[in-house]
Amino acid sequence: MSELQRKLGAMAGKLANNKSLISGVMSGIDPKVVADAVNDNKDLLIKTMAYLDPDVLAGVINSNPDFMARLMRNLDAAALAKAMNNNQRLVTQLIEHLDPNVFSRSVSVVFNKMRKASYRPDLRKLSEEPA
């Protein structure tokens, strides 16, 4: 049975590296569901990024700009930053391969998210403080 599993695993790996297949799958997936799964498994994101091909990943992102923008809005900013900081080489190579319009759109989403997180006071703490 393990030989069959090994062959199925190799086939699944080849399919997972197919840009067109991944792009097609992404067109049918809800970005919020993906973001929630990533947010629930923050360490997995860090470990997975070490194995990604920046050219293939850029192709998938370039083919799905709306998905990526919606995904970025829902990802935990701290987890994403940690993953990117631990995989700087991938991030640099990824940016080199991204369509400039897609990149600027994604960066805009990230900056808006950072701005809101940085400048919005925690209303729960404000309501607990005595007047």
Index terms:
about 130 residues; mainly alpha
How would you describe the overall organization of this protein?
It is a single chain. The protein is mostly helical and 131 residues long. It has one domain (2-118). Helices cover 81% and strands 0% of the residues. The chain is built from ten helices and no strands. Helix 2 (19-26) runs parallel beside helix 5, helix 5 crosses helix 8 (88-97) and helix 6 (65-74) packs parallel to helix 9. The chain is globular, with a radius of gyration of 18 Å. The mean pLDDT is 80.
Short description:
Helix content is 81%, strand content 0%. The chain is an all-alpha fold. The protein has one domain.
List the topology elements.
Blueprint: H1 2-16, H2 19-26, H3 31-40, H4 42-49, H5 54-63, H6 65-74, H7 77-85, H8 88-97, H9 100-119, H10 123-128
List the uncertain runs: none
> How large, in whole angstroms, is the Cα Rg?
18 Å
Element string (H = helix, E = strand) = HHHHHHHHHH
Q: Could you tell me the mean pLDDT? A: 80
| Total E-strand runs | 0
Helix-strand makeup class = mainly alpha
- Helices, by number, come to 10
Shape: globular
Largest sheet: none
Helical fraction equals over 70%
**Roughly how many Å apart are the termini?**
69 Å
The portion of residues forming beta strands comes to under 5%
Q: Write down the domain tally.
A: 1
